[in-house]
Amino acid sequence: MKQLHKQSASARKDEEMPASDTPPYSPKSLKNPRSLPRSLNYILKEQRLLFVLIGIVIGATFFILQPSLSSSDGRGVISIANRESIDGLGHRGQTDFGRHGYGKYTNGVGRVPVGIGNRRKRIVVTGGAGFVGSHLVDKLIARGDDVIVIDNFFTGRKENVVHLFGNPRFELIRHDVVEPILLEVDQIYHLACPASPVHYKHNPVKTIKTNVMGTLNMLGLAKRIGARFLLTSTSEVYGDPLEHPQKETYWGHVNPIGVRSCYDEGKRVAETLTMDYHRGDGVEVRIARIFNTYGPRMCLDDGRVVSNFVAQAIRKQPMTVYGDGKQTRSFQYVSDLVYGLIALMEGEHIGPFNLGNPGEFTMLELAEVVKETIDPSATVEFKPNTADDPHKRKPDISKAKELLNWEPKISLKEGLPRMVDDFRNRILNEDEGRGSR
Amino acid sequence: MKQLHKQSASARKDEEMPASDTPPYSPKSLKNPRSLPRSLNYILKEQRLLFVLIGIVIGATFFILQPSLSSSDGRGVISIANRESIDGLGHRGQTDFGRHGYGKYTNGVGRVPVGIGNRRKRIVVTGGAGFVGSHLVDKLIARGDDVIVIDNFFTGRKENVVHLFGNPRFELIRHDVVEPILLEVDQIYHLACPASPVHYKHNPVKTIKTNVMGTLNMLGLAKRIGARFLLTSTSEVYGDPLEHPQKETYWGHVNPIGVRSCYDEGKRVAETLTMDYHRGDGVEVRIARIFNTYGPRMCLDDGRVVSNFVAQAIRKQPMTVYGDGKQTRSFQYVSDLVYGLIALMEGEHIGPFNLGNPGEFTMLELAEVVKETIDPSATVEFKPNTADDPHKRKPDISKAKELLNWEPKISLKEGLPRMVDDFRNRILNEDEGRGSR
């Protein structure tokens, strides 16, 4: 088994398996080793051993007859076969895809279309149990591909992919990308990195290691196996931009020694590595610079403005605005991003490409939309701004429009209600969980 | 013994030891093991063994009486004691220090002043066999400190420190900082990284690894042993600056995906790591941003403008000017930089501090000075400029002046002749070496 990498002291409630799966603990047999011969005797008597053997044969037969169920490669794979969606969350993965006319990628949901079987790709998604990653995985699985998710569950959650556990084309590996891994795949979507300030500032050195060693490891894998590699970079590489909106040619305005630098500089150097592997080793690479994105499965309370406002409004708390609230952001609905990532991966252009929604909102305008959507009585509370927070950010997406034929289709007013349902459920469950303790 | 890290295919002629130091090879005793009893007999006869024992006692006594000579820690140390400067290069280390009134650090050259022995520091200098590193080591040794040099000899050269081989306070470890190392020291000067474009572009991924893993390893060491850590960053973190001259508060203008990015972004992220270890773990850190520096022991033909011009003028070749020759640089003599680094390490301020000479020259003006100094008949040849080459760069050093009480003292016209002597000797030796082959 792959060693479990403990990365932070943050709570990991979601990683515990249900207690019923583990064998009952039997302290006696450990404390009294002298009674071992007697229990051995017990096992040997009464054809008990024979029945164990019969059980083994039955189990083996089952797996031999269904080879796809035993296709795990033995490297620390969590493959929980024959287990349907446990908690009713299964529907989430199939909500927003196949609606927007991206016919090329909508081969139906959940089943492999006839005839596509032998063309299906093996794809690894690092960070695939995270917010964006899990939506991407849903889309790739729906398209008919074999998908391996790598996640260390620092910010990723099993709930985000639990509805896929029963699918033989899905596999989940608990692994930290800071360590190398060997896999045989055709494409690598490299998303693994905490992406919200509250998470990436938690252990800045680890954030840099994830960006540098993680990207190095995945690029090394891509080089070794000839896979295509897609880096999800970020609009943060533009820092607090002096050019507005930001084109891909803009070099950015980033503080190298600030408290956010671990993420900004880490992602910049990940881009550098990606281009150096391309130039030096001929690795097929793609770079996406992702702007603010929202949707179901975002972390609650991760400090990002959309999740903050929505969670606060649902909880009947005032919405916290940092600074004067006039700094602007653009908000992209997650399914738009997923289509952009796939278009980039499948296309012929390296990038970098801005993937974001150019619709620009001030924090106060966003608060207004959240208020309209959730609770007309919601209020706003002002707090001093955090260090290095960019004043405005808005993508120029003409390059992606022209070369990838991509643009976002879902407006904030359309997308926000879809997110609110998910958040309401989770906050409700959270409160119930607290109440029952 | 520490494993030898082969990092590049570049020639390493300078690392071979003189053949006269190795014991003569005796194939007979190996090929005829049956003759061993006879040779044993030979040794036992005639009191030969007794004399060997006497020799051992003499040797041991020598080391017991001079304990400092046996202070090596046995970790892959190349300590060649009792060996005076071999080739007349010994004087180089003592040329330029103790002249400029930095009384605090000039306790005489080559000998430990009386009474300083118990206060002397243990200092490691990574990249200590390189151009700047070796001058720093000379100064620290001259001050009376114990100095350990770590170098992988990618661009460092043994010739730069060979005059120190006989000094018991000097130690040389062949080690690549990309791998961790355990040492017990009080201060860490972290210089290790190829610094000229021709070298850092040679293997861009390795350049990033050196900057990230190398800095991580040395910061980890500093944290573990409570040492003070000084990072030598670079003016390249300012990229092609939009602010002129550059203050330390300027965030820079760097292309994250260009061919020079491995160095620029690598150093930026090294600064980030340094500040994160300071903020998160309380490591005592110092950051210097070094501007163009020249002096004896610079690599010949490393593509840097000063060494290029000087080498070309000495070889009677035309001096190559890239672009129109109107881009400007500031040139700092290496001894000024060394005093700045020591003042920063010993002072109470973290930085970053610009260390450079604010005197600004265009490439054509520099060519003129080289012409005057070396050969009035030297000519200039224009070539197209390389990608991402900054148009101008000039340090604002008011912060270092105010807080470190430091400023450069040696002008280009003073410093250049000191470098020319060294270059002339080396180019002459090079030509002789070629001629004799």
Task: Set out the fold topology.
The structure is a homodimer of 437-residue chains.
Chain A: H1 27-31, H2 36-44, H3 48-65, E1 77-78, E2 122-126, H4 131-143, E3 146-151, E4 170-174, E5 187-190, H5 197-200, H6 204-225, E6 228-234, H7 261-281, E7 285-290, E8 293-294, H8 305-314, E9 319-322, E10 328-330, E11 332-333, H9 334-346, E12 353-355, E13 360-362, H10 363-374, E14 380-383, H11 398-404, H12 412-436
Parallel strand pairs in A: 2-3, 2-5, 3-4, 5-6, 6-7, 7-12, 8-11, 9-14
Antiparallel strand pairs in A: 1-4, 10-13
Helix pairs in contact in A: 4-9, 6-7, 8-10, 8-12, 10-12
How would you characterize the overall build of this protein?
The structure is a homodimer. Chain A is globular and about 80 Å long. Mean pLDDT of chain A is about 80; it is low at about 1-35 and about 65-115. An eight-stranded mixed sheet of chain A has the order 1-4-3-2-5-6-7-12, with helices on both faces. The first copy, chain A, has a two-stranded parallel ribbon with strand order 8-11. In chain A, helix 4 links the parallel strand 2 (about 120-125) and strand 3. Chain A has a domain at about 75-300 and about 330-360 and about 390-410: NAD(P)-binding Rossmann-like Domain (Rossmann fold), CATH 3.40.50.720. Chain A has twelve helices and 14 strands. Chain A is an alpha/beta fold and about 425 residues long. Chains A and B meet through helix 6 and helix 7 of A and helix 6 and helix 7 of B.
